[in-house]
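Notes to self after the call with IL:
- keep both proteins in one doc
- input above output, always
- annotate only the second one for now

Protein 1:
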Amino acid sequence: MRFGHDVTVFASGDSRVSGRLIPVSPQAIRHYPSPKRHLSEGLTFLAIEKAFSMESSFDLLHVHAGFVAFPMMRRSPLPSVATVYGSLDAPEILQLFRAFRELPLVATSAEQIRQCPELNWLALIPVPGPRQRSEVPAETMDSLVETATAYTAVYESIVERAVRPTHAVRPAYSLYDVQTTV
């Protein structure tokens, strides 16, 4: 990988990734016929189970699947971090996140941090928009490199401290030190 990390991605078999791909389904969820109820959660469980079965191969588990993975992250033998997407404005969602407040998280918007500041936020790393993903002009590539660099700082902090999900992460840098302007 570009930043010197050996990355294994657990995703659909039709995914295009730079690292090693371990498929958890033949195709992306959007290609499955309806109804798709619980398909995402089921595939998340399968991906995490596969990762746990290979645990000695990994230094860190980075979850993009939302709170469905939180109970497994809490019990994981691997250090882990979850990137949070979407709003935390529903009372039930806030209750759920607060029940797992010790888990290390990466926010994708400042609003998430304002909605629930007591969570264990490690960084604020905005997600590049669709235009940025498809066209990649030079300034966007710089932003994507900044985003990757910010995630690298988060990863190295977690792995260096051998943080287990049952302990709060205390990063060596402030939340806004790794904020990017995408």
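Protein 2 (the one to annotate):
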Amino acid sequence: MRLGMQWYKDSVTSACSKQPVEVLSLEQMRRTLSWEEVFAKVPRLPRGWFELVGLSQADRIELFRDFWFSALGVENTDFPGICHFFPL
């Protein structure tokens, strides 16, 4: 387990209860478990987040860029700062 995940697990455990808390990495679960198995462990997890983790980094950035361009109503050339923020 990564050091950051261990720190998070320890701080959540001490803040919430004296019982150990299981901290799950969505990336790790995506590699080893099916959606049905993940949903059984974490029923409140939206399927979209599970699928998003399966995309490459470039595809994730492109998806978010296109979403925000659409939400903000801008074209690629309207605001170069936004285009620079989402480099591919």
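Annotation: The two ends are 30 Å apart (CA to CA). The chain has a mean pLDDT of 78.
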